[in-house]
Amino acid sequence: MINRRDFLLKSALLSVASTTTLVADAVDNLSIITEKSSDIYLTHEDFITLGILRERFKRLKRFVGYANFNIISYNSSIFYARNYSSIGKFSKEEIYLMERFFYEDPSRYGFYGERTVENISDYIKKKDLQKISRSGHFIFKGTSLESYNRLQHDVDTHNIILTSGVRSVIKQMRLFVDKLYRNKGNLTRTTNAIAPPAYSYHSTGDYDLGKKGFGFANFTPRFALTKEYRELKKIPYIEMRYTLLNKDGVRYEPWHIKAKV
Length: 261
Ligand SMILES: [Zn+2]
Hints:
- By secondary structure, this protein is an alpha+beta fold.
- It is built from nine helices and six strands, in the order αααααββαβααβαββ.
- The protein has a single domain (44-259), classed as Muramoyl-pentapeptide Carboxypeptidase, domain 2, CATH 3.30.1380.
- The protein has a four-stranded antiparallel β-sheet. A two-stranded antiparallel sheet has the order 1-2.
């Protein structure tokens, strides 16, 4: 029969043992924790909605065409989706998710860039844009277009192409949603690779340049190893927006041009 003294001793030992085990487990898990526990993910329900939203964006893009999709407004997207069954109406959950991505403060995910668009319904006027032939993209008239046109004379642009120009809220939203989906809902990783919908400088004048025929590699650090990149680096009236270890918390993007004529 166990007496009270033994009982107390035994429970004390047990509790020490279990505490020790917990500490050991914690130490074991520490490497996993430091890698992943700070990353913020979407909930399972939101991830399901994200997949549905992603498909709807695909249908909307097919409906309006590649070039138009770059500059389509939020309100027009809602309108087309509601009125054309080939796209289908955005659900309450999808709208909530879009508003969340647009309005929430992304600094909690490690993104510290400036907000470039105030309201989700803000739109881009077509008269402020120049369509760049054969690219399917647009550039803002003014500083951006001046720098782009000047480039045509100052460097051998034979091999340099415009890979992304003006982006509306919806276009940036679509890129963000796509990346977030591929990152399995990891918001921290995603905001390191792409600005959230209200934070893209593509909505105010920046554009991306690449090397003809280089494909997806134009959006990797490999672009910085090309002759085309070295030529661009010499141009005084453009600069890179996202340099190595930039303060915005965005990855290195040698292809992303900030115009400053
Ligand atoms: Zn860019």
